[in-house]
Amino acid sequence: MLTVEDLAELLRTTPAGIHSLRYRGEGPPAIRVGRRLLFDPEAVRGWLEDNTEDASRARPRLKAVR
């Protein structure tokens, strides 16, 4: 199980960033144990796969005007 701090390190963000994702309903599923949030690594992996952008769907970059 991953803690908020572990997940933040994995995603290269802060614990506040993880809490913000959860507040907006956009984060991976968590399990509450008392006051702690724990994340199943398999659920996090699935969440990452579900939220990975496909290169064909990515917004094209704008060309610089000279």
**Count of alpha/pi helices:** 3
Report the β-strand fraction as a percent range. Answer: 5-15%
Order of helices and strands: EHHEEH
Number of β-strand runs: 3
Q: What would you call the shape?
A: elongated
Give the helix proportion (percent range).
Answer: 25-40%
Q: Roughly how many Å is the radius of gyration?
A: 15 Å
Q: Can you tell me the residue ranges where pLDDT is under 50 for at least 5 consecutive residues?
A: none
* Whole-number count of domains: 1
Describe the protein.
With 66 residues, this protein is of the alpha+beta class. It has one domain. Helices cover 39% and strands 14% of the residues. The chain contains 3 helices and 3 strands. The chain has a 3-stranded antiparallel β-sheet with strand order 1-3-2. Strand 2 and strand 3 form a beta hairpin. Helix 1 packs across helix 2. The longest helix is centred in the C-terminal third of the chain and has 10 residues. The N and C termini lie far apart (52 Å). The mean pLDDT is 88.
Pick out its properties:
3 helices, elongated, 3-stranded antiparallel β-sheet, 66 residues, alpha+beta, 3 strands, single chain
Topology (elements, then pairings):
Layout: E1 2-3, H1 4-10, H2 15-23, E2 31-33, E3 36-39, H3 41-50
Helix pairs in contact: 1-2
